[in-house]
Design brief:
Chain lengths: 478, 478
């Protein structure tokens, strides 16, 4: 290891410890806390209580003695104990005053939820500059303003101000999200809950006057609960620092990014949205490759890639077997494999002969293997065992079990799962249909086999696993 | 009108009448009908009874006197009345014999469900050739073999052999489907049911030894219940006849096509699947444009395009307004507009000033209009009324109401629907989220506003509406 990488590693480790307080604070003060419905600090406090946070909580509001049964303090300065983090969700004009109090109280971290800064023009920019100066002078690290803050499924902490009944909470899992956009972060959490995708931590930093992706990446890189990092960005906080942090992270775990603000219309929109100077897209594109980041185009590809990477390992090569009982779906998958640089080679004569011996004469023993509408669960086992376990002709499988025919039952899930586990190779599932199919989809995903509702998304997800392999090779041996 | 087009119109009219019998027969004989579970003719008979078919039904089976309470006949020749259509779902080896009986009984239409023909090799091809000869000699029109046949939501007729509990039946509606693949047709029906997309008729012709898309298109073209035609094809039955029929149809209603078997892997897969010679994709591509067909890439784009075209009219131009309360989603939509040739122009200074007067200072009055997390339902009404009704600066709207913030309620559906109706311009909706969002999505689609779960699919759907406009202009004024 070279000197510079030792230095970089110790820097990032220090930074990682500082960042943890935003996700897992030992104590938190909620400025403006109230039981009044509709108030942001009130909803945040309620959400922190509901999620089961185990640290100390200090409501701060001169109007009350208690809030939700907790002792309430007139100001930050009146709290008798040390405080790790403040959550500030009060009108923009009052934030500076609170931050100055926080400086005197020596609280090192603030999540500023409040909007009404840079995104509203000149006056807002000036207010932001003042906040930055106070933070700099007093060693306060700030997440925000104009953000949702954090959500942590392991530390049981959240600063979300969205009511429960509107946004589902995803289960605990392997994916952590960094997002410049709050709405995007919320939508991803909600989709993750719907898709059965497990989430570790989320941070949304909005106007990003201090902490951004370059600070947060090293923390997630070292975080053992995070196995995949997912980033939404309109712009980057510090170009070189980000590339360095991302390269280090990519050596350990995949980073999936959605960069928006690409064309003229999108760049203008990003500027209006978070004041981001989106910059030349081509530069981002090159930087992502250099840092081993898997770039995606659009919300669905982003979620699909994250799901595949959190459930399956990359294949060692690009030789794909397609198995289906819906011939047309096999054809669509084959088309999209070609479009995505995946190879769909025919089985060898020996393998073909072996399969022929196990199947009805009208099954199509090529690639795709078409088990036809007469397929039963066990035919999937036979095909996958012969091609993926007992033979080494393929690197990955795309399995498309359509559940409409009578021969197909829920047993197919265990048969496919056990056979693919025995093969040690990745598989991606596509199945399309109504309520019975939905039930089967959930069973597959319980076994970490990611399911997609179209052959083209299934192929794209597999191509992202392969991309991870190639980008990892690239950052390990640049 | 030129002479040749008069001739073509009368030909297609004649063909259309012949084709109707496959969807709406006055009477039907089910060969091999039985009450035994698992038997295809038995399930088909049960499905015909369940769907509420109102024509005469003749079970045919020498083993029974009655089947499901209906008098059963030993053979087709024993039926005392005229019969319009036979449904043949017995082993391949016995089909020829039945078709010869049908010839003697002078039944002019047969749907042959049975598999085990061309797709299984030389012997199967020979059997098909014999069927073709009998059909030709006796003026019998055949749909199939190796197919699901038809489903008609207006005539209440089906030849599906899939059990109800596995495949949902879509509601009656404006879309008719032609599909070479049975599994694809089933999946589309199931997805349509899930998406709230109304279906008129479906035909699947499998090995297509006689009737194919060129015969069926003129029927759907003249069918007043069909407003959008959706075609899945691996190959085409008769190139020139198809282009002529499609061009005539495109003058009246949109055709959306999914052509599969494009690259080497897909072409090989299509050949194994339905014996289709997929041919050079570039030729198809050119032919589709010539015939005004909207080509799509993959299952989802196909369904998405069909949904948009069945619910909204094409815009007159490509100037798009984006309105959202989730800034990041607006940026993604703007990016994808640029990718898809849609223009996202800023509002004029006058329009901007007007909007400024109605909104909070921190709402972003550009394009996208970002109503921020503070948006309420009525803000959508204000933005759309000013930009789409009272101004003529935009041709279409992409509306992205995220339902997580408290200011958003179900009322937003009627506000957007009424405003867009008043504008006379098309709108496409994107909303992303869990169960509350799903409820709102269904309300939008009840009002014929198509909803997509990502900004990129929303933009793509709008671009397909615009493509319809351009292709229609092209076939009307070639």
């Amino acid at each position: 290891m070279s000197k510079s990488s030792v230095k970089s590693d110790s820097c990032t480790l220090f930074s990682a410890i500082i960042m943890e307080t935003f996700f897992n604070p030992s104590s938190v003060a909620i400025v403006g806390a109230t039981e009044k419905s509709g108030s942001l600090p009130g909803i945040i406090l309620k959400n922190i209580l509901d999620i089961g946070y185990r640290g100390r909580i200090y409501p701060v509001n001169p109007k009350y003695k208690t809030v939700f049964g907790l002792p309430c303090f007139p100001s930050l300065l009146d709290i008798p104990d040390e405080v790790a983090l403040t959550v500030i969700a009060i009108p923009a004009q009052s934030v500076l005053n609170v931050l100055e109090q926080q400086a005197r109280k020596k609280i090192g971290h603030a999540i500023i939820i409040s909007a009404g800064f840079r995104e509203t023009g000149k006056e807002g920019i000036e207010m932001e500059e003042k906040l930055k100066q106070v933070a700099l002078d007093n060693h306060i690290r700030i997440l925000g303003p104009n953000c949702l803050g954090t959500m942590d499924n392991y530390a049981h902490f959240t600063t979300s101000f969205l009511p429960h009944e509107r946004v589902s909470k995803p289960k605990k899992g392997a994916v952590s999200i960094l997002s410049q956009s709050g709405a995007f972060a919320v939508a991803v959490l909600d989709l993750a809950a719907q898709e059965g995708l497990g989430i570790a931590r989320m941070a949304n930093y909005g106007n990003r006057i201090d902490v951004g992706e370059s600070d947060l990446l090293p923390f997630l890189s070292d975080d053992e609960n995070t196995r995949v990092v997912a980033i939404y960005m309109e712009s980057v906080d510090h170009g070189l620092k980000f590339i360095e942090a991302a390269t280090a992270c990519s050596r350990k775990k995949p980073i999936v990014a959605l960069k928006v603000g690409k064309g003229a219309a999108g760049i203008a929109a990003a500027k209006s949205h978070t004041g981001a100077i989106a910059g030349k897209y081509e530069i981002y594109k090159a930087a992502f490759i250099k840092a081993g980041i898997i770039e995606t185009n659009g919300l669905e590809e982003f979620i699909d890639g994250v799901k595949a990477l959190s459930m399956q390992n990359p294949p060692r090569g690009n030789k794909v077997l397609i198995v289906t009982n819906g011939g047309g779906f096999g054809v669509i998958a084959a088309d999209h494999c070609t479009e995505n640089g995946l190879d769909v080679p025919l089985p060898s004569p020996q393998l073909k002969e072996k399969l022929r011996g196990s199947f009805s004469g009208y099954y199509v023993v090529n690639n795709p293997i078409d088990l036809t509408g007469s397929a039963s669960d066990n035919d999937y086992h036979i095909a996958l065992r012969a091609c993926m376990v007992e033979s080494d002709e393929y690197d990955a499988a795309i399995v498309i079990p359509l559940m409409a025919p009578q021969g197909m039952t829920e047993r197919v899930v265990d048969l496919i799962s056990e056979t693919m586990t025995a093969s040690g190779k990745p598989a991606i599932i596509c199945t399309v249909g109504g309520s019975f199919t939905t039930k089967v989809k959930l069973l597959f995903e319980d076994r970490n086999l990611p399911v997609y509702p179209s052959p083209e998304r299934c192929v794209k997800a597999l191509s992202m696993l392969l991309k991870r392999k190639r980008l990892k090779d690239h950052v390990m041996h640049p």
